[in-house]
Amino acid sequence: MIKNDFYSKESLGAAYRFSLGDFQLSRGGSIKDAQLSYSLHGELNAEANNAILFPVMFSGTHSSLKHYIAAGLALDPERYCIIVPDQLGNGVSSSPHNTPSLNAMSDFPALDIADDVEAQYQLCQSLGITELALVTGWSMGAQQTLEWAVTHPSMVKRAAPIAGTAQCTAHDGLFIDVFTQALRSDPQWNKGNYLASSDVNEGLNRLATIFAMMGLSTQFYKQETWRNLDFGSLEEFISNFWQAWFAPMDANALLAMADKWKQGDCSRPYQNNLNTALKRITAKTSYIAFSEDMFIPVQDCLFEQKLINDSELFVIDSLWGHFAMMGLDKSDFSEINTILSNLLESPC
Fold first, then answer.
1. Catalytic-residue membership of 322
2. Full-model pTM
3. Right CATH number for 174-256 from 3.30.70.270, 1.10.260.40, 1.10.1740.110, 2.40.30.170?
4. Which of 1, 41, 127, 179 could form a disulfide with 77 if both were Cys (CB 3.0 to 4.6 A apart)?
5. Is there a catalytic annotation at residue 139?
6. Of 86, 322, 329, 332, which one is the catalytic site residue?
C-alpha cells in the first residue's frame, strides 16, 4: 500500500464507504474486504422512488462532475436522492494502491464493468432502493449505465448513457492500448511496483498528452478555443489543464480502470450477442453523443441506440469533443442538463 493524498476526503470531499466483504469478481479472483466509496446528495423519499445513480468516468471520482448536482438543475438534490459511486479501482474505492496484502499494487485483480454494477446494486439494496428513477453517466459511466439497464431492467426506469458504449469498439480499444503503453513506458513504473504515485510522473504526462490530442476536436485547437479558459498558450493549456489533471493520480488505478474500459461488453452473458443484450433494456433511454468525439464517435452511439427500444439519440455539437461533458462550455452544460431534465419529467 502507498499513500496518495489526492484520493483523500480533504482533496475530494467527504464520501461514505460501503463494505462489500470478500467480493467475487467476474473475471476471477476476489478483493478481500472490498470497499465501495460513494457520495450522497439529497434524501430518499418515503416511496423510495426518487433515487438517481450517477456513476463516474475513467479517472473520475465522486467529486469530478459535482457541478451537475445542484438545486434547480436536472440532478436536483431537493427533489432526488443522487448517488455517485466511485468505480472499483478508481483510487477511492478498493484500488491497487489502497488495498493491503495479496491484492496490492501490481497484484490487484482484473475488474469488469459488471463488478461495478454488482457492487452498486448491493449498495442500493442496503439503502432500501429497489427502483432507480434514472441512471446516467459519461464515458465509462455510460458503460455502467448500459450495464445497469441490461442487468436490472425492471429496476432502471430511465437511462441516459453519455458518450459511451455497451461494448467497447476495436478503435476505442486501440486508443486504450496507446495511452496505457505510454503510461507504462515510464522507467519508474517498475511493472506497477513503484514506491510513490509521483514516481510515474513522466508516464502520466505522456498519457495526458494523448488525451489532449484525442479528447478534443481538431477545430478546438485550430480556433484556439483553449483561450476561453484564460490560457495564454497551447503549452500552458497542455501543462496546466491536461497534465495537471492526471499528475496527482495513481498509475495502477488508471491502468485498472483502462483495462475494465477495454473489456467492457454487456453482451457476454448473452452469448456475446449485443442485440440480445440491449433488447433487454426497458428503461426510457436518452442516448447522448458529442459531434466531434474521437473516443466514442456519434456513429458508435447511433449503432447501439438503434438496438434499444424506447430510445432516442441526442447529438450535441461541440468543439470540446469527448470532453464536452466537462461542461466548460456553458452551452454544452445547458444542453446536457436540459436533456436529463426532459427525461426525468417524462413518463415511464
1. yes
2. 0.98
3. 1.10.1740.110
4. 41
5. yes
6. 322
